[in-house]
Amino acid sequence: MDKDFAARRRRDLIIAAVLAAIAALTPLFVKDVVVQNILILTLMYAGLSQSWNILSGYCGQISLGHALYFGLGAYTTELLFTKFGVLPWFGMLAGGVVSALIAMGLGYPFFRLRGHYFVIATIVIAEIGLLLFHNWEWAGAAMGITIPIRGDSWLKFQFLRTKLPYFYFALALCCLAWFVTWWLENSKWGFWWRAVKDNPDAAESLGVDVFNSKMGAAAVSAFLVAVGGSFYAQFVSYIDPESVMGFQFSLLMALPAVLGGIGTLWGPVLGAAILIPLTELTRFKLGGSGRGVDLIVYGTLIVLISLALPRGLLSLFSRPKKTGAAR
Amino acid sequence: MTALLETRGVWQRFGGLVANSDVSISVGRGEIVGLIGPNGAGKSTLFNLIAGVLPPTQGSILFDGEDVTRMPAAERCQRGIGRTFQVVKSFETMTVIDNVIVGALVRNTVMREARRKAHEVLEFTGLAARADVLASDLVPAEKRRLEVARALATEPKLLLLDEVLTGLTPTEAQTGVALVRKVRDAGITVLMVEHVMEIVMPLVDRAIVLDLGKVLVEGKPADVVRDPKVISAYLGDRHAQRA
To answer: Which of A192, A202, A207 sits opposite B78 (nearest CB)?
Structure first.
C-alpha cells in the first residue's frame, strides 16, 4: 500500500517533468506572437491558480481577493524599481514577502470567520486595497506607473524584441507552484490543511493547530501569487490599480482551479489550459465590441461544466476506488 | 498514584441553564469508566469540558498532574487526551488512511513514520482493508471505528469515547466492545459516554451516573444499576419504589 502511494507520487512527478519539457519546446514551433502571448498567460494563470489552490483548495479558505496579492507584487516591484532603482528580481522577492506578511496580518482577524463570511471579507479587503492604490499619489494613483524601457536586459527583466524570456519565466513560475503543491501535499502541512478544510473541530481534537495552518497556507499562497504579479508587471510594462488589482484577477485565479478540480494537484493546470486560451481567443475574436460576448461565451461554458462535473474536470480521469459501499 | 484525570467542582452554565453543577470525578490509570445518565444529564457537556472544546464556568480540570482547565483542545491532544465525536466528524474528502495520518502526525513528524503508524492503527482497529477508501464511502459503523482509529493514532493516555456504541446493530456493538477492551489492554485509559446500559455495564470497571448536571451515584456497575436513585432518574420514582 505504501508502495502504491510512493509510485503515485513518482508518477505525478514524471508526468509533470514531461509536460514541462513539452511546454519548453513549444516556442520552437510556435512563432506567432499572439499565440505566444496566450501561452504565456496560460502558464501564468496556471501558476497563479495553483497558488490560490493552496489556501482555497487544500485549506478550504475560499478567497476571492487574491487580486490584492497579485497587485501588491506588481506594485512593490515597480515602486522599488522606479523610485529606488531596485532590480525587479529583488522587487519580486520583496513583493512576495510583503504579500505574505499582509496575508498573515489579514488572516489574524479574518481566519476567525467561517464559510461565506470569510469569502465576503476577502472581496471587501481586495476592493479596499484597490481604492487605496487609486488614491495613493506617490504610487501613481489612478494614472499608474509606466516602467521605463531601456532595451532588452535579463538584469532588468525587460524584453522588447522577443517574448521568449517571459514565456520561460511563466513556465518556471507554473512549475514552481506545482512543485510546491506536490511537495506540501505529502507533508504535515498538506494533511493539516485538508483536515482543516473538511472539519476544523475534528482537526483540533487531533492536535492540529487550525489557526496557524490557515496562516501558513495564506503566506505560501500570497507569496507565490505576488511573484506572479511582479512578473505580470514586467511583462506588460505598465501598471495601474485596475490592471493589476481588479476583481477579474481574483476570479481568473479561482476559476481554473474550480473548473479543473479544486483542492487537487492537477486541477488548476488542467483548468487553466482550457479556460485561459478560451478567454483570450473569445476576447480576440469576439471582444472589442464592448467586453460582452466573450464573457457570455465562456461564462456559459463554466456553468455547463459546473453542472455536469461539480467536482471539476479532473473527476473524469479519477478511477473508481475499490469501494464496497455503492454511492 | 494520582488519578489520570480529575475534575474539581466543575460548573458549566449556558445563560440560565446549568449543564454541570459542582461535578467532581476522577479516572484512574488503566480504568474503563462509563459516564451514563438520562438525556440532558450533562454528559456531553462534561465530556466537552474535558476534551477542551470550551472552558468551564467554574472549577478546574487536572490531567496527568497538570492543570488543563483553560488549555485549547489541540494542546490537550498533545498532552495525551484523544476523543471521538458523538456525531461522527470524518474528513470526508480524504481516504481512511489519510484521516488516520492526521492523528498520527501529532507524535510522528516524519511522514513515512506517520504513515506506518496509521497503518498499524488501521490493523489494530480492523479497518486495514478499507485504507484507500474515501471516508465518505464508509458505512456508519465503519465511520465510528474510524473515529476511534484516528484518536488512537494520536497515542493518547486517555481516550474519550462519545457514544461510539450507540445506534449500532448488536453484532456491530459487540465488535465495538471487543475493540474498547483491546484499547484498554494496550494500556490506554478509557472514559466513555453511553446511554445503552446493557452494552456498557458489562464493559466498564466503574460507572458514574449524572443526572440534572450533578453526579448522582458512582461505583461498580452491578451496584449502580440496582441503586434506587438511578432507577428513579431513568424511569421515574414509581419504578424506584417497586425495586
So the answer is: A207
> In sequence order, what are the residues at sequence separation of 6 or more whose Cβ sits closer than 8 angstroms to the Cβ of residue A264?
A53, A57, A312, A314
Report if residue A324 sits inside a domain.
no
Which helix (H) or strand (E) covers residue B26, if one does?
strand B26-27
Å between A186 CA and nearest CA of chain B: 7
pLDDT value at residue A154: 82
Give the residue from B52, B19, B36, B5 showing the smallest Cα distance to B195. B36
Residues A199-237: b if buried by 16+ CB within 10 A, e if exposed = bbebbbbbbbbbbebbbbbbbbbbbbbbbbbbbbbbbee
Residue A288 C-alpha cell reads as 472589442
- pLDDT tens per residue, range A67-91: 999 999 999 999 999 999 899 999 9
Record: contact B85-A187, CB cut-off 8 A: no
Q: Is residue A325 part of a domain?
A: no
Distance from CA of A298 to the nearest CA of B (A): 29
User: A95-144 pLDDT, tens per residue?
Assistant: 999 999 999 999 999 998 888 899 999 999 999 999 999 999 898 888 88
C-alpha cell at A316: 473524469
Q: Into how many domains does chain A fold?
A: 1
Domain holding A33: CATH number? 1.10.3470
β strands within A108-227, DSSP E: 145-146
Give the CA-trace dihedral at A261, A263, A266, A270, to 10 degrees.
Answer: 40
In the prediction, which pLDDT does A321 show? Answer: 47
- The partner residue sitting opposite A207, judged by closest CB among B94, B136, B154, is B154
Query: Mind listing the pLDDT tens digit for each residue in B140-154?
Result: 999 999 999 999 999
Longest dimension (CA), chain B: 61
CB A106 within 8 A of CB A125: yes
The pLDDT confidence band at residue A61, using thresholds 50, 70 and 90, is very high
CA contacts within 13 A on the Cβ side of B24: 4
A3 shares contact with chain B (CB less than 8 Å) = no
The pLDDT tens digits for B175-231 are 999 999 999 999 999 999 987 778 888 899 999 999 998 999 999 988 888 888 888
Q: Report yes or no on A209 lying in a domain.
A: yes
Which pLDDT band, with edges at 50, 70 and 90, does A320 fall under?
very low
Tell which residue, B35, B33, B59, has the closest CA to residue B47. B35
